[in-house]
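Table S2 (text version). Query chain:
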Amino acid sequence: MSRVLLTMMLLVTSAVLADNGQAVPYVGRTVSNVIDGFRDQGHPFAYSTNLVNDELRVLAEPAPGTPVEIVRQILRPHGLDVQADAGVYLVVKGESGATPVPDAAVAKPKLSQPDIETVVVAASRYEISRDISTSQFALDRRTIQSMPDIGEDPIRATQRLPGTAASGASAVAHFRGGEDSEIGIMLNGQWLFDPFHIRDYQNIFSAIDARAIEGVEVYTGGFPVRYGDRMSGLVLMDSLDSEKLRHTEIGLSVFNTSLLSAGTDKDRNWLFSARRGNLDLVIDPKFGQPSYFDVFAEYGFEITPNTRLSVNALYADDQIKLVLETDPAEREQVLSDTSNAQFWLRLDSNWSPTLGSSTVLSMVKYSNRREGYANDPEKLIAAVTDNRDVSQFALRQDWVWSPSDRHRTQWGVHVAHGEADYSYAGSAAYFGLQEIYENQAAELSRSIAASPNGGSYALYVSDRWRLSRRAVLEWGLRWDDQTYTDLSSDSQLSPRLNMMFRPGDKTELRFSVGRYHQSQAMHSLQIEDGITNFWPAQRADHLIVGLKHLTGNDTAIRLEAFQKEIRDVRPRFENLYDPLSLMPELAADRVRLDPSKAEARRTVAAWNWWAAYTWSKVTDRIDGRDVPRSWDQRHAVQGGFAWNNEGWNFSAAASVHSGWPRTDLALVEQGLDADGEPINVAVPGPRNELHHPTFASVDVRLSRKFKVRRGSLLAFVEISNVFNRRNVCCIDWDLEENALGNESLEYSYDYWLPLLPAIGVLWEF
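Corresponding structure-token output:
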């Protein structure tokens, strides 16, 4: 059986120099400009804009040396120095009266006592929040763009992190054994609503342009109480903050055509990003026409020196036609039309030197139309019409009070009201093997409508204390409730505790324990499977212990043990053999799972040079038995490296993990018919008892940057699954009959992404 979208994607196949080639003098340039220049060459510098502002200039020409030596020289007159931390060169305040230290000492950071407030550093226009929570990672804009991932997708980039499970075909992933819906995505303080393209077929791409953001901060567990209603993970993003009066990028690749324009002027900044998908222009129309685009815009300005307002808008639109079987006698296709408009205002206020707040007012308008049919008289004749409309208004306010450098308190409130309209009609008639599945009716017909409405509410408070020079403790409590679920009492309390202890100058020990709840979102009613009620909120208890150690050669070694137990698990539906079906709810291999609880156990070891090993066990408790979840992978290895010089950049990344579980199928004779012929029934074996072969993929990316008369031109080639490994995703079972009329089962495999090349160019000016 062909896999349309995968087939489609296969087919689409320094120093700063002046114009005369002489080195530009450093004297008179801003310090941030020099550091950003080294950043663009791949050197991992990071600085706080409070320490290195735009008025800080180079006062004397530095002696020749390495980038670290040069940066140290231009910082010294300003009382600043460079310190290595987890593979990043941080700009820090120098010790008063201290004598200059040799470059080798950068690998030996001093134990400092930063303010209790979260330390924020900017690395060439991106922010990394160094939290005391465990399972937190950060990826900057340049790293995301240089990673060999399909479409330079910031959400796909998170699949490289330890503790994630992903197929490679979808932009969404499983964090710490949880479902993919258990991950929250936030941009500029706003929880994004379903930010994916081709949502009815694997969520192939996210609706976020990697070039429009500073970077991503990712939690795969243990996150603080200010973030709630998610059980497994968070992806936090802030938009690009241009330091230039005007900055423009024009890009063209196999996957999309993009335009980005950003700038700043005195007390205001703006950003505009637009992308159009190109798949519909390069594939054979007989496989479909996936057309999609997205637009993001932000405009921010200072109302007063202590108050800033930003206006944000994100719009994504899909008009997708996918054809799975092109033969008219067996044609299977689906049409999907989705529009997703999100608008929000963000007001940041500094009420005093110790008190600040952030307020976000948002509106969401979402619409999805899906129509599909299958016409195969030997297997399945089916049709579906699925319409969904959702609107939501929300207010979120967060406060922070820092009375001293040893104490910080946060609290906040979140209120949202939404309305949804569902209209679903689906029918199917089964033939051949599909008809003889155990407990399978010959026909299915379903016509349902629902119109839920109501609110969701949240309150939280957290308190962080520096207990000593080496220890920081944070406790928090969160309360959530929903009124659209028609449940008499389903409010949730979530206590959490995080602690960080530094036993040595180069070692950090982190500990997190807490409870996390996730309600069923108003737009995720399982109406396609005949469910018209909302389930109670699920609960997950996290226990995490992490150790990070910085070696003398700038290598950060990170060990982490993680256990997550999930209670009140919501029933879910899966397809046993074909997860890539265009109309999965009508397939004969559709099953309902009712776990009583679920559990994830993981041990992770990671290095900053792209290497991680994860041992995990992810199970559901079903009928008193621990059953592996469909994305359980006992052993997983992620690795990679990057090389660059003034013009070239090469990166490679590999992913290897144990094959995901699968279920067997057998023909069982259950009596004789009126003619004395045996009646066979297709009976699935024990759920997820077997496994697919090991999954392995190597992705590479090569780029070359050219200086042109105006700006620079970047050309790149990218190959996913460069060795074209056939990673099994699905099993296509069929019923065969020999010359004597005896029936038997036969099967074939279908696969995840094949070798997938892409080329593109980007003009920056």
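Notes on Table S2: Confidence is low (pLDDT under 50) at residues 1-23, 96-130. The chain has two domains: 31-124, 129-764.
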